[in-house]
From TrEMBL:
It comes from Sulfurimicrobium lacus. Pfam families: Transgly. Residues 244-403 form the Glycosyl transferase family domain. This is Glycosyl transferase family 51 domain-containing protein. It comes from the Bacteria. Pathway: Cell wall biogenesis; peptidoglycan biosynthesis.
Length: 420
C-alpha cells in the first residue's frame, strides 16, 4: 500500500480496500513469526503470542459464535460489539474512527463499520460495510485460511462514486461541496497479514461539478513556487503576465517532450488514465518511467491540493482533474501546467526553466534540451543539484524520453560543458 502512495497513484477505489484491510485487522492482528501470531499482553513484562488461525476457527465455530455473541471489545477504532447472525460472526463498531495513514494523518470518522465473517472448513467468506450518514458501501469477499495467512478475493458491486466519497468526507472536504456523477465497480485480491493486494477498477460516467475550476479559463492565475530554501512563494501569472506563454509559443520540442515524459495519453484520457493506473495497482512491472498521475492531476496538485503524499490528497486531486477536463479543456490545462510546474529551486514554468538551464527562450530549445527538461519533472530539485550543477545529465532517462518522443533528432546536444 505504501508503494501505491509513493508511486503517486490515485484511485477512488483504494479507500474501500483499505477499509477492508483495517476492519480485518480489528479481529486478526499482525504477524510475529512463521505462523500468523498476535501478541497478547499478560502483564507489563509478559506477553503471550497467540496463533490466529486456530483463534479464528474457534471464534467462527457455532460454539464460539454463541460464546462471543453480545461481548464488547474496546479497540483503537472504538467499541466493537460481536454478534452471531445467520451463521456468521459479526463485528460492528458504531461510531468508528479508522486510522489509515496511507489515506490521511487524521482518523477517518464513520457512522459505523461492520465486518461479517463465516467459515466452512478452511474456506472463509463474508462482507465488510462502511457507513456515514445515509451512505453505505459494502465489499464482499471469500478465500482460504491456513496457519500462515488469509488469502481473499473481493468484489465491490457497481456503486455510485458519490456514495463512496460521502464515507470519506472527513478526509476529502470537496466531497461535501461538489456534485459527483458516475458509477464504479471493482474486484481484486487481499492477503493478510502481509497486506499484499491487487485491484481491477471500472469507472463509468465520472463527472464533477461545483469546484470552481472554470475560473482558470483565462485571466490571472496564482500559484506557489518554492525558492532555493524550499520556502513556498506566491507567484502571480496568467495570460498577460510577463513570461506567460501559450503552448504554441513554446515551440514544438518542449510540449512534446513533457507529454512524452509525463503523460503520453494526455489527449485520450478524461483526466485519469486507467491504462496506466491498473498495472501499477496490480503490482505489474512498470512500463517505462511514467507514474499514473496525468498532467491534469499534477496541475490539480500544483494549484489546489498541495504535495502531501497520502491517499486523501490523491482523491482530492482526482476530483479537480476530472472537473478541469470539462471546464478548461486540454489546451488550457497544458498551458497552465507548462507555466506553473516546478522545474527546480525557484524555477517555475517553462520560461524560467529554459532561461536558467539553457539561457534561451522555450521555443529555441532543441529536442535534446527539451527532453532533459521533460525528464526531470519527476524530481527537479535533485536533477538541479546532481545533474545541472555537476554537468552530468542522466543519460538513461534522457534516452528514454527521446525514445518516447516521435520524430526527434538525436544529433542535438544539451550544450553544457559535458556531453549531453
Amino acid at each position: 500500500m505504501v508503494h501505491w502512495v509513493k508511486a503517486g497513484l490515485i484511485s477512488i477505489l483504494i479507500a474501500l480496500l483499505l477499509l477492508l484491510f483495517a476492519a480485518a485487522l480489528l479481529l486478526v492482528g499482525s504477524p510475529t513469526g512463521k505462523d500468523w501470531l498476535i501478541p497478547f499482553r499478560l502483564t507489563r513484562t509478559a506477553t503471550l503470542h497467540l496463533k490466529v488461525a486456530p483463534m479464528l476457527a474457534a471464534a467462527t465455530s457455532p460454539q464460539g459464535r454463541r460464546l462471543l455473541a453480545g461481548s464488547r471489545w474496546r479497540t483503537r477504532a472504538g467499541t466493537v460489539t460481536l454478534a452471531d447472525r445467520d451463521g456468521a460472526l459479526v463485528a460492528r463498531c458504531a461510531p468508528c474512527e479508522v486510522r489509515i495513514v496511507q489515506l490521511s494523518s487524521e482518523p477517518l470518522r464513520l457512522s459505523a463499520m461492520t465486518l461479517a465473517l463465516q467459515r466452512d472448513g478452511n474456506r472463509v467468506s463474508g462482507w465488510v460495510a462502511a457507513a456515514n450518514g445515509g451512505a453505505e458501501q459494502r465489499l464482499i469477499f471469500s478465500g482460504a485460511l491456513d496457519a500462515r495467512a488469509l488469502a481473499l478475493n473481493w468484489e465491490l458491486p457497481r456503486s455510485e462514486i458519490a456514495g463512496v466519497l460521502e464515507l470519506l468526507r472527513s478526509a476529502v472536504p470537496e466531497a461535501g461541496r461538489a456534485t459527483i456523477l458516475g458509477h464504479f465497480s471493482a474486484a481484486g485480491t487481499l492477503s493478510l497479514p502481509s497486506g499484499k493486494w491487487s485491484i481491477s477498477p471500472r469507472l463509468e460516467g465520472f463527472e464533477v461539478y461545483g469546484l470552481g475550476t472554470e475560473r482558470l479559463r483565462y485571466g490571472a492565475v496564482d500559484f506557489v513556487c518554492r525558492d532555493a530554501s524550499g520556502t513556498p512563494q506566491l507567484r502571480h501569472g496568467g495570460d498577460r503576465a510577463p513570461g506567460w506563454l501559450a503552448p504554441d509559443r513554446m515551440g514544438r520540442a518542449l510540449p512534446r517532450a513533457v507529454l512524452a515524459a509525463e503523460d503520453g495519453r494526455f489527449y485520450q484520457h478524461p483526466g485519469y488514465d486507467l491504462e496506466e493506473l491498473v498495472p501499477l495497482l496490480a503490482d505489474a512491472e512498470r512500463n517505462g518511467r511514467r507514474g499514473a498521475s496525468t498532467l491534469s492531476q499534477q496541475l490539480a496538485k500544483n494549484l489546489y491540493t498541495g504535495a502531501d503524499r497520502n491517499g486523501a490528497r490523491k482523491l482530492r486531486e482526482l476530483l479537480y482533474a476530472v472537473e478541469m477536463e470539462r471546464t478548461l479543456g486540454k489546451w488550457r490545462i497544458l498551458a497552465l501546467y507548462l507555466n506553473t510546474v516546478d522545474w527546480g529551486p525557484g524555477i517555475c514554468g517553462a520560461a524560467d526553466a529554459a532561461r536558467v538551464y539553457f539561457a534561451r527562450a522555450p521555443e529555441h530549445l532543441n529536442p535534446v534540451q527539451a527532453a532533459w527538461l521533460g525528464g526531470i519533472l519527476r524530481n527537479p530539485q535533485r536533477a538541479y543539484r546532481q545533474e545541472f550543477l555537476t554537468r552530468t545529465p542522466e543519460a538513461r532517462r534522457l534516452k528514454w524520453v527521446l525514445a518516447q518522443t516521435p520524430r526527434v533528432s538525436r544529433r542535438h546536444r544539451l550544450g553544457w560543458d559535458a556531453p549531453g
